[in-house]
Design goal:
Strand content of chain B: 5-15%
Shape of chain B: globular
Number of helices of chain B: 5
Strand content of chain A: 15-25%
Number of helices of chain A: 21
Radius of gyration of chain A: 28 Å
Largest sheet of chain A: 7 strands, mixed
Order of helices and strands of chain B: EEHEEEHHHH
Largest interface: A-B, 59 and 55 residues
Distance between the termini of chain A: 44 Å
Oligomer: heterodimer
Strand order of the largest sheet of chain B: 2-1-5-3-4
Strand order of the largest sheet of chain A: 3-5-1-12-9-10-11
Number of strands of chain B: 5
Helix content of chain A: 25-40%
Structural class of chain A: alpha+beta
Distance between the termini of chain B: 45 Å
Largest sheet of chain B: 5 strands, mixed
Structural class of chain B: alpha+beta
């Protein structure tokens, strides 16, 4: 895979953790037998279509549904008035500290604040008929002045987009920091500053959102199959919105065709399908089409960072500040704007004095939500671009500048200026390995200027830390989050001699079914093949949190360890009675319990488990049954880290460039399944490259319309678009997690854009090129060349 | 109208409305839900099936056009509980994550393998570019297809 040397750390001998066992998910998916929402059907199903506001900002004067009601096959229509009467607003799961609540219902009330906001909903015999009916609904809109960028939104006198909640378009301003950073900057030998613009993008999972809602009258039971990363949170929200007891809502997420943060929390359509189902007493299905997806599923990332770094002449950083604005869109979605740009604003650099201020602006665009990395790629682009600017200003080597400022192994645990506790690591080791992998010394020695082929070559680096998992439920509570930091598992013996493992985490491609089974096999000793996963169903696992924030393994590992230990102890006690020996003399291996000293003396797990289930094989005083549930929350977040390096060649006339090689050296602590880790990192890198090189949701400032909201118009990297990518890793076990793991799911997204931008700026240093916005297109590079030449 | 088509080796005759797409025909009439819908524009490739030996995007065709032709979907691969060598290659190389795009890559590769042409790794990348994947970064998918086509070490393991 790589010619990077691997610096493995010692770890206890493990049997199955750390190996590339085949995935449990694969067999059904390879047969096309996954159960994505639209793959599940029901007799008498009704289909739903949603009518959406075609304007970025409009008052809804009237809605006339008469003609639509008369269309053959139309069964039910909902408007904003119905929704206000029959449901509650959609709640926010991740409130912004100090921010007022912007109330929104599943359908717009008097005013719509973004193009694509649901306004009416129709349930009909088929989707075709439902769509036809939507066309027949006459809505009288009064277009209002619209705002499509944050500067205009925050300008004095701007139209207030959410006047019921806000006096202007600033949702909130959150300042945080430590020390007297202005004094440090005033004393600094050099201060560099930049304004960095990060593009609005979408995670674009290949399966769009969808819901199949079934209502059982009498029992008052709603079952909703939802393509979601957080079935338990959707259950909570659906119960609230639909005024049902939580016990009367079950949410199932079988297979989820990609999430990336977009599929967190309930969306309006989930509520609408539930309401239609309750009215019609028939199953109601809604599957978002791709055009709707671009407008109605949360966008991400758009922000502007104004960053400053002050340093001594020798390169030592004395202070860092970031003032940034997030573009929230037309309302605050359940996961809204991220706080992670703040949490890791200083990256891997040891700076005592630092200050960061986040402002969130409301605009007339699709609401922002979570997306892989969630705030961290944005701020990484700012500080890592500026590190190179600083290196050039001080005439220092950018690698040495980074290394001298990095938090070092002896510094841990280290508390950054906003209170994040970096747990452990060797940040410089990753940087050095990445430098070696691109032959950095040889490249530096070769000097600058065009190569014989006329192209300019450059190399760029980007180092990062990423917060993975959450630092405890107490931490989340202090920020008003309506979810916990924990995961739970239930493990239950079955009569075949296997274990049923119940996890609330939905399977979104991350391989958790496999990794959970690996961990349980490791803890209990039972064969991997004897473990059956049951996931993503609130009927089995009502009290979990969800698959996001690179947290599921971190949180679930502790729960599996605790439940597994108890399960194993009881299994051995039951087997000891059968074999008439002391439990301490026994071990569980594969599918049997046997004497440590004499492997011929054994009893099968099927027999032990059956005895437990029947209650007939139990030692005196032992309760029947064999199942264990455990909860675990990590005491702190674990910080992943690493460095990406890119080498490029650039045509200094046209701005056309080629990434010749992309290297990523990262540390996710103990890799439970190295192949899965590599898959996650490569996937993240590709999404990061997409954002760096082409992805951008563009709004026409005149009309306020999303102008490239189709698959034809939105760039997504294909198999033919990728440069050669090389991965390496270090392995520093985290002291704050079970098995020493750190999250790995999102790291790929974080450093790519800055590494590529830095490489291009390095190649074109003699032209004074500085890139400060994404995506990096040849046109952008050409414009920067022109600007540089103009001085 | 009435359409007669061979699907996964079985002759099927169905009465269909003219605006029914091949994807909907396969998914909703025949229950072959392995063929997915991603964009209905022919861009994302989730709906890729093999039509008379060629990989095509079934969301861009009407079911009416199938009359007299032969279609293969992902459900035709493998034998009972056993994975086909192509499916096994994807499993061995970790060529899938969420699995939503997987049937489309499998059918694209099925058509490629039928072509019998030796392909370089770059050519495989080009051939696979008609199907998008948002999870894997493609590398392992390319490995799987290369392995299946016989060019990658490890093929003998299957």
């Amino acid at each position: 895979m790589t010619d990077l040397d691997e610096r493995a750390v010692t770890r206890p001998a493990m049997r199955i953790i750390g190996t590339d066992v085949p995935r449990k998910e694969d067999d059904r998916l390879l047969r096309g037998a996954g159960q994505f929402v639209d793959d599940v059907n029901r007799a008498h199903v009704v289909e739903m279509a949603v009518g959406r506001c075609p304007y970025p900002h409009a008052r809804i004067r009237s809605i006339d549904v008469q003609a639509a009601r008369e269309l053959d096959g139309v069964y039910d229509i909902l408007t904003g008035a119905d929704i206000a009467e029959r449901s509650e607003p959609i709640g926010i799961l991740r409130p912004v500290p100090g921010a007022p609540v912007i109330t929104h219902y599943a359908l717009a009330q008097d005013t719509a604040t973004y193009e694509g906001q649901p306004v009416v909903s129709v349930a009909a015999r088929t989707r075709h008929i439902a769509e036809d009916a939507v066309e027949l609904i006459a809505i009288d809109y009064e277009p209002l002045p619209h705002i499509s960028d944050v500067d205009a939104a925050l300008a004095p006198g701007a139209t207030v987009i959410q006047p019921d909640a806000l006096e202007d378009n600033l949702l909130v301003c959150n300042p945080q920091g430590r020390g007297d950073v202005e004094a440090r900057l005033a004393e600094a030998d050099v201060v560099v500053e930049g304004r960095f613009v990060v593009n609005r993008v979408t995670g674009l999972p290949m399966e769009t959102r969808g819901v199949l809602a079934e209502w059982q009258p009498g029992a008052r039971m709603l079952t909703a199959r939802v393509s979601t990363q957080s079935p338990q949170l959707v259950r909570k929200q659906l119960a609230e919105c639909l005024r049902l007891d939580e016990g009367h809502v079950r949410v199932v997420a079988s297979d989820v065709g990609g999430g990336f943060g977009l599929k967190l929390g309930a969306y309006p359509e989930d509520v609408l399908a539930g309401l239609h189902a309750m009215t019609l007493r028939r199953p109601v299905k809604y599957v978002e089409d791709r055009l709707e997806h671009f407008r109605a599923t949360t966008h991400a990332r758009e922000s502007v960072h104004v960053y400053r770094i002050g340093a001594r002449a020798d390169g030592r950083i004395v202070g860092m500040t970031d003032a940034y604005v997030n573009d929230l869109g037309g309302l605050n979605s359940p996961f809204g704007s991220s706080q992670l740009s703040t949490v890791v604003f200083n990256g891997p650099y040891k700076v005592e004095d630092g200050f960061v201020e986040r402002r969130i602006a409301v605009t007339n665009k699709t609401p922002i939500g979570a997306y892989r990395g969630y705030g961290q790629p944005e701020v990484n682009f700012a500080y890592e671009r500026l590190m190179d600017t600083l290196a050039r200003r001080l005439d220092l080597d950018p690698v040495e500048l980074r290394a001298m400022n990095m938090v070092q192994p002896e510094d841990f645990p280290w508390v950054n200026p906003v209170g994040a506790i970096y747990d452990s690591g060797d940040y410089e080791a990753c940087l050095r390995m990445a430098a070696d992998a691109v032959d950095y010394q040889a490249r530096r020695a070769a000097g600058r200027g065009p190569a014989p082929d006329g192209r300019y070559r450059g190399v760029g680096f980007s180092s990062y830390v990423e917060r993975t998992g959450y630092a405890s439920s107490k931490f989340l509570a202090a920020r008003g989050s309506l979810f916990g930091a924990h995961e739970s598992v239930t493990i239950r013996a079955n009569r075949s001699g296997g274990i049923d493992l119940y996890s609330g985490v939905s399977s979104i491609g991350q391989g958790s079914e496999t990794v959970f089974a690996q961990m349980l096999s490791e803890v209990v000793g039972i064969s991997y093949d004897a473990i059956t996963l049951h996931h993503g169903d609130t009927g089995n696992s009502p009290l979990n949190t969800g698959a996001f924030a690179s947290r599921t393994v971190i949180a679930a590992a502790g729960a599996l360890l605790e439940a597994g230990d108890r399960f194993l102890a009881k299994t051995l006690r039951i087997a000891a009675r059968k074999l008439e020996v002391d439990p301490a003399q026994l071990e569980l291996v594969g599918t049997v319990v046997r004497m440590r000293a004499d492997h011929g003396v054994s009893v099968s797990l099927a027999e032990v488990f059956t005895g437990a289930i029947l209650g007939q094989g139990m030692p005196d005083g032992e309760s029947p049954g064999l199942d264990e549930t455990a909860y675990f929350e990590p005491p702190e977040a674990a910080y992943s880290f690493g460095t990406a390096a890119a080498t490029v060649s650039v045509d200094a006339e046209t701005g056309e460039f080629t990434i010749e090689k992309l290297v990523m050296v990262h540390d996710c602590g103990t890799p439970l399944n190295p192949k899965l880790v590599e898959g996650q990192v490569r996937g993240g890198l590709t999404q990061g490259l997409g954002q760096a090189l082409g992805e951008e949701l563009r709004y026409d400032p005149e009309s306020g319309q999303l102008v490239n909201g189709t698959m034809l118009d939105y760039f997504v990297p294909t198999a033919a678009d990728l440069p050669p990518i090389e991965l390496g890793h270090t392995e520093v076990a985290s002291p704050v997690t079970t098995f020493g793991v750190r999250g790995a799911g999102e790291v790929g997204c974080i450093p790519v854009a800055a590494a590529v931008a830095n490489a291009i700026c390095d190649a074109l240093a003699e032209f004074g090129v500085e890139l400060d916005r994404l995506p990096i297109t040849p046109e952008l590079v050409w414009r920067a060349l022109e600007a540089g030449r103009a001085g | 109208m009435v359409v007669t088509v061979v699907v996964n080796g079985t002759r099927v005759t169905e009465t269909i409305p003219t605006r029914l797409s091949v994807t909907d025909f396969l998914r909703h009439r025949l229950g072959l839900t392995g063929t997915h819908v991603g964009c209905e524009q022919g861009v994302c490739g989730m709906c890729t099936v093999v039509l008379d030996g060629e990989a095509v995007k079934s969301c861009l065709m009407y079911a009416a056009q199938l009359d007299g032709h032969e279609v293969e979907t992902v459900e035709s691969l493998g034998d009972g509980d056993a994975l086909s060598p192509l499916q096994q290659a994807f499993k061995s190389e970790h060529g899938l994550q969420c699995g939503f795009c997987t049937p489309a890559f499998l059918m694209t590769a099925t058509a490629l393998a039928r072509g019998g042409e030796p392909l370089t790794r770059e050519e495989i990348r080009e051939e696979l570019a008609g199907v998008l994947c948002r999870c894997t970064g493609y590398e392992f998918i390319v490995n799987a297809v290369e392995r299946h086509l016989g060019a990658r070490p490890g093929a003998a393991d299957d």
